[in-house]
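Take a sample.
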Amino acid sequence: MPVTLDAFQKKIQEGTSIWLFTTKLCPDCRRLKVFFPELITSYPHFYYEEVDAEESSELAQRLGIYGVPSMVAFHRGLEIARYASRLPKPREQVEQFLKRVHQIATALDETITEKKGESS
């Protein structure tokens, strides 16, 4: 089912989200789908959505997705990381991507908390 731009915009405002863009005929996408669901369970606070780039072509174009699989991470509406490459994505590199997303999101939240404390 295609992801609408409105649904996407609403979801990226809610904490941290990972958007995995795939297609049905992509061999690397199929390999990634074998281990990605297990990896993402290590981050239960992340919202995760798999998007068929062909079915949701408007969203894919808006985000500049030109190859699959591609992963884009958002935190409170801001894009914070992207993993896109024509090369296969081994498990270890995907794990590193998710760890980096977690680190960036945590640092952003800490900065926001500090700024709120300064203005009080």
Summary: The first helix runs from residue 5 to 12. The chain has a mean pLDDT of 93. The helical segments are 5-12, 27-40, 57-62, 91-119.
